[in-house]
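Issue 218. Parser rejects a valid record. Input:
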Amino acid sequence: MDANARGGLFGCFASLQDPRMDRTKLHPLDSMLAIAIMAVISGADGPTQIADFAREKFGWLKTLIHLPNGVPSHDTFGRVLSMLDPEGFERCLLQWVASLVDASGQQALHIDGKTLRHSFDKASSTAAVHMVSVWASKAQLALTQLATDDKSNEITTVPRLLDMVVLHGAVVTLDAMGCQSEIARQITEGGGDYILAVKDNQPALHADLKLLFDEAIESNFDGMGYDRCEQVDKGHGRIETRRLWITRDVDWLREQGKWSKLRGAICVESVRQVLDPAGGQPKTTVTRRYYITSLDHRDRGKDAAFFAGLIRDHWSIENQLHWSLDVTFGDDASRLREGYAAENMSRLRRLALNLLKQEKASKLSLPRKRLKATWSTDYMLKVLKTRN
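Output the parser choked on:
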């Protein structure tokens, strides 16, 4: 591979330990990973199609990477992916991704998980792989991800993820599963701030926040300092009004001292009206969600609209990462089950998504970018060297 690409993305694999015995190392590990990345960009969804890609592109590939013994077989690709240390592989990818993140300004890091539903093995009673990811919404990049045994273990996986990313100056958002006092402390001790969704897994805190906002909204926050914003969306036969209130009046919360640097409580109310085509009364539903934060809404630039934007941005991990991985890359449909193959292939898909998103010169959809990379070797190289 040329100097730019090797010094950028592929140079990150230099420290990755090859899991094979010496006598079976017929194909260099970095060359195999380079092929796998290009194949996944081009649409491959597993070892067999990666090997197919390598055979079809062999004449071109051997001018770019070291292939002393020809094309690896699909069994070789499958064996390497199933044996490759997933956390070592992740650290290599994080090294590259971190170089793309603009360090200027405040970063919003959103953490959420998704299950590779078809990775379960009924015969061996092996649970499906559950991946927890960190999404940087400003950079439009999936920074890192780790696997956990099941969704309940997100609580133990999140601290490991936080150890891998730069928290200083970042705002970390988590759903209710991550609303844990130790996680809040880890974020603030790392120099970051948090916005944590609060639900019934923190029963005392949830009950206090509900009581606080029920009374405050009814009394128009009489005697309380607060800020608020409102947004109305119309379309597709519905009207949705979203209101956010934030207050620093948190000293009376029973567990106030449990949460590191707690400075604010937030309520988000969604009023959804579904219009009746026959002209009858619209069907209206009202829901309220609650959050705590270490940020102060009185700081410059941190009004209620700022918090509403961060909370809405949290769901960009679903719309722009998880949805793209499932719909464009077939992440959820993968049936790989041997060893670490499922989670390592998921990492390759995430890397391919990052590369394609960072190639901004071509105003094409992700599926069209994948096709173009398959047809044009020049475009493939452009994608690989994005921002390097």
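Fixed in the parser; the record now loads. Residues 341-358 form the longest helix (18 residues).
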